[in-house]
Write a structure and sequence with these properties.
The chain is α+β, with helices and mostly antiparallel strands and 189 residues long. It is built from eight helices and four strands; from the N terminus they run H-H-H-H-H-H-E-H-E-E-E-H.
Amino acid sequence: MLIVPIALFGIDGKYATALFQAAAKTNALAAVESDLNNIEQRLSKNTRLEEVLSSPLLNKTAKEELIDSLGKKSEITTHFFKTLIENNRLNETRSIITAYKSLMEAERGIVSVTVTSANRLAGKDLKDVKDSLTKGGLIKNYKEVNVVNKVNPSILGGMVVEFGDYTIDMSVSSRLAKLEKLLTDSISV
């Protein structure tokens, strides 16, 4: 059995991992990635197309014809979409593509780190987070670390760092929730 570069979970992770393994066995990783990028572009250009693919009212034959109309694809990608149709999982297409991209990045030695903060972080702050993760030994064996900042004012302050299977929650909102739980637990006893 082929070892995948990172473990993904959920429906999208399982399907993306299966697709990755099938593509790797036939040396078609790049071809499948190209196919998925083309499909993703078409879905982005035509939001109605994604709605139709996800519709339970459309029969399997019509869905197969619709997938075929999305352009020439490798044999692995074609079989993969037939499997999605058979299992009624076409509605997971976008998330499967995202998960496959994560696998391909990990295969290339790239790890994506998402830093969620209450306000946009400056470049120096993001570099400090990146340095802390790499020098602290949390992220090893990667050639490149991509840090992306997301803003979520509901965390109030601090930050939440996510990469791979790890989540480091240093947000004010989670600390307040823990404090509230401690207070309510001790009162109810």
